[in-house]
Amino acid sequence: MGPLTTAPRPVAADIATQRLLPRETPLPMAPGDLRKSQVPDRVPAAVGPAVALRRGLILLATAALTGAGGYEMYRVLEVGGVTVLEAMVLALFLVLLAWVAFSFTSALAGFFVLLAHRPGVFAPDAELPAIASRTSMLLPTYNEDPHRLTARLRAIIESVEATNYGELFDWYVLSDSTDPDIWIAEEKALLALRQSVGAPRLYYRHRADNTARKAGNISEWITRFGAVYDFMIVLDADSLMSGQTIIRLVHAIETNPTAGLVQTLPMVVNARSLFSRVQQFAGRLYGPMIAAGVAWWHGSEGNYWGHNAIIRVKAFAEAAALPQLRGPKPFGGHILSHDFVEAALMRRAGWGIYMLPTLGGSYEEVPPSLLDFAARDRRWCQGNLQHLAVVPARGLHWVSRLHFMLGIGAYLTAPLWLLFLLLGMLISLQARFVRPEYFPKGFSLFPTWPAQDAVLAIWVFVATMGLLLLPKLLSLVLVWTRGSMRRQFGGALRTSAGVLAEIVISALMAPVMMIFQSIAVVEILAGRDAGWQTQRRDDGTVERRELYRKYGVPTLCGVAMAASAYAVSMSLLLWMSPVIAGLLFAVPIGALSAKPASGELFATPEDREPPPVLRRANDLSAAAHVGIKPALVELRGSAELLAFHLAQLPPPRAARPDSVDANLAVGRAKIDASDTFEEAAAHLSSREVFSILNDGSALSTVLQKR
Questions:
Q1: Contact in structure between 120 and 156 (CB atoms under 8 Å)
Q2: pLDDT tens digit sequence for 421-472
Q3: CA-closest candidate to residue 149, choices 244, 239, 232, 272
């Protein structure tokens, strides 16, 4: 790793005539390989007896709860003998109960951890530790709003500079944007940002070829510039981190030489719609307890969520290169959910993966509507199902394999829940319309009565719901017992009302998400690729036609379930009403939850008293809210921006006959056939403009037209 004096600096002073990139300082990435030997590259981070005991307690408690619940469910079904359908229901119940029990025991551990927790060195007013390492701040972006992007980035830069350690950080915006207008707007916004903050260490790089998406973007940066830096902090387009948090992260990994990655717990902020406000409230209230639980038993075998984490560059380069999976998409090709795999590969090489759930000062945003959330979830579903090919890789730690299985199970449980409900209804329909066979073939002294123990079934249901809801109530208890936190949430009564409302709203939306996730799993198994879409950040409103189209399937499922339940009995319809209501009213629920929502019901501490970095980012975003103009118009109107753009383009290469850019060829033909700039710009497609922006001579030709 290079010393402080070798940090890259631009050579020229005029930002309009230079490349806004440092000298290349390569750090080769080791080739990705899932067939690696069992022997790690270095001595693994040790797992102490305390962590081993914690894991044993979690697994033992999960097994005990699953066994007890499964036995009681067997007692419900075994009256008169267990039929084939009932055996299937019992098997599904065991799988789903194990999932619920595991989450419950982990959250319960988090409750006791936070109950005994004292802020200590992570208290907001605690003195900042000293650091000495070089750290790069990486902000990958893909067709995001450049003005909001640079507003958040400026807030982070100013917060870090205020710590007096700003000279140890370099800042990179790594663009994969394919929209030509957004690309040029990014360059314009970066020029303005660099002039505003006066930061000579703010760099920009645009990739014309988006190979391997975000993971490829990070890997390319490492191979070109990574050798100068000790650590890198990876951000998302909606990430926000305070300077104090960043300094504490650097100190945490500096003082632990076995650590390869340290993950923070990002809190959701800036929620505006009812859907996003519910998600923000739930994440802020329940998230710390859940994260404290998993960190308690994960130890050095934690996980990586792809952003708001600090990574040792050397460890990442040596161990975390991703292989391409065999076969066609959606299971083959580049790995979409790369973060889990990168963490597992680093742990396989002996580096520790840690989480600091109580650090604070780490923020992100959430999709504004259920449909936007489902669209993002669809991509994550495909990425997690790809992990089926990674689970058997050699040398992985068993906890890393468990992370993969939990991620896969997060999506497979949706169709399993749906199948569980359908089988239960099928048993009820069978009992109602199929003539029972009281005396089966062969000798039987007593008749076989097709019945279940209804009272015991209710108790099993109540116990299962208790495992689902008790962690939320325990989080509420933590708020009640902490005076400062209670005041931050607006008091015990308001927080309690928020929890009750969140439970009701989430219960109504859960069946819809069950259908969406089940459809996603079926589509992926059928070979449909999710692609790579830009995520909406602000407006969650959806056109009426889109509402009916997207929520049509859940609504039809609700109609079918309601009709089937009513055909059996009114009691069954009432019993299933929580699920059926969410499906029947999917369209109005989806429309209402996507609209802006105000008020104090779901207010969080960051709503009531925004931290300085969040307040600054929001002020800058509001002040910089401007439209995005066409790329060619922007370049034609600013000589400085044009010079900067041309300076960013890689040197021209001799084109091979088999690599002709068809969009560039068509674009050149349209330019030649046009008499004026306005005519040429009007006839060029977005892809043609993108190709022209990557070709200096073609760009000069179109801009020189009168």
A1: no
A2: 999 888 877 766 655 555 555 555 445 545 556 677 788 888 999 999 999 9
A3: 239
Q: Which H or E run contains 356? A: strand 352-356
Residue the block writes with tokens 């795999």: 341
Kindly give the residue spans of alpha helices, DSSP state H, lying in 136-226: 146-161, 180-197, 213-225
Q: Range with the lowest mean pLDDT among 70-84, 164-178, 372-386, 557-571?
A: 70-84
Residue 336 Cα distances to 115, 143, 210, 324, 331, angstroms: 37, 18, 13, 11, 10
Beta strand pairing call for 267-268 and 362-364: parallel
Distance from C-alpha of 385 to C-alpha of 407, rounded to nearest angstrom:
8
Question: How many beta carbons lie within 10 A of that of residue 568, not counting itself?
Answer: 19
Integer angstrom CA distances of residue 207 from 142, 218, 429, 660, 690: 10, 11, 58, 18, 12
The Cβ of residue 627 has, within 10 Å, a number of other Cβ atoms equal to: 7
Under 8 Å between Cβ of 647 and 18: yes
Q: Is 173 helix (H, G, I), strand (E, B) or coil?
A: strand
What are the tokens at 267?
A: 């809190």
Residue 207 has pLDDT above 70, yes or no: yes
pLDDT tens-digit map of 581-610: 999 999 999 999 999 887 788 999 999 999
Q: How many CB atoms lie within 10 A of CB 122?
A: 18
- What are the start-end ranges of the E strands in 253-330? 259-264, 267-268, 309-312
Angle, vertex CA 112, rays to CA 111 and CA 117, nearest 5: 100
pTM of the model: 0.90
- Distance CA(423)–CA(73), nearest Å, equals 15
Q: What angle do CA 120, 124, 130 make, to 5 degrees?
A: 75
Closest C-alpha among 412, 382, 430, 469 to residue 92: 412
As given in the structure block, the two tokens for residue 1 are 């790793």
Average pLDDT over residues 206-221: 91
pLDDT score recorded for residue 81: 73
